[in-house]
Amino acid sequence: MKWLILLSLFGCAQVTSLNLRKHQFGLLPTKIIWFQVAGLEEEQIAMLRFQSGEKKTSFENNICVGKTWNYNLYNLRNPSQVSFLSQMTGKKNIKNTCEDAEMRPIWNYIYGNGYSTAIIESGANAEESLTKFNKCGEKGLVFLSSIHYYLRSQPAQGATTFHYSEDIPLNPNQLIYDRTCGAHDCGASLTEDFTSIYNKFQKTSQKHLVIVRDFSYLKALEKKEWNRAREILNDIERAYGAAMKFTDNNDYLVILTTGDSKFVDMPDQGKPWYDYEKDNKNISTKRTKLTNLVLASGSRAENFCGMYDDSSVFERILSGPKQQGLELKIINPFK
Hints:
Shape: globular
Oligomer: single chain
Radius of gyration: 21 Å
Strand order of the largest sheet: 7-8-6-5-9-3-10-13-4-14
Structural class: alpha/beta
Strand content: 15-25%
Largest sheet: 10 strands, mixed
Number of strands: 16
Distance between the termini: 43 Å
């Protein structure tokens, strides 16, 4: 009998840490902040980590690091917008056409459970932006329904605009542009826009999903504009760090996923690195990698460790063990 009691006690022990960090498993996130960054892969963080010394970035403070396969039913390597759409719909058959509007995105699933969704999009062209679904008829309008949409791009004529230093408008089903943005750049930083929008949004929505989509970093990499790429990455890192501070609360999940991750041939130590710091020499990009990066912290972050398909990001946000008891059955709490 004594042995049975001891076994029972050991069997009920729970692990409360992950990656040497305090962590509670199986908690349902009611506040989700999701960064989608085109072009990024982990070694590029060296552009910030070794800049004028050595500093740890917010990207390195995550509980879990994962990798997703950058392929679907049609291609082995996909453009970033295809990977991101696969991540948001849980589907592999992304065609990059209006047919994709027939799929249910994550915000459509969680809307009925009281979750509001905001999207902040930076540097996207017409093909990359989700606003392209506005041209896909009724199905496209349904795909984008009930979203608060903020665009860091040049405002269309007569469009509603916002400024991070002013009261942020909260108008679902309307495109709202950062008025500081011109044809090539924005006067406001991503960090300023994200912080201002999120502070307003969380006050009006207790349960929410906020998606920050950046394509400007990839464009700078492809043009070999290294100083600009580093400035953009530094801005994304600050915004991500601001989001990470919320994960001290048990109901927050903060994740970062990438698409079209590029291999950047970073310089060696010594003079090549000095030349890179001074003149951005001795650095080059190569073709898109076969995998994309995933970072996660907060509630349900444990779901994002390991390797899986791009399409699996969707279910890893929505699924987890029941919070009552110690059941191991995986469920979708939003159904």
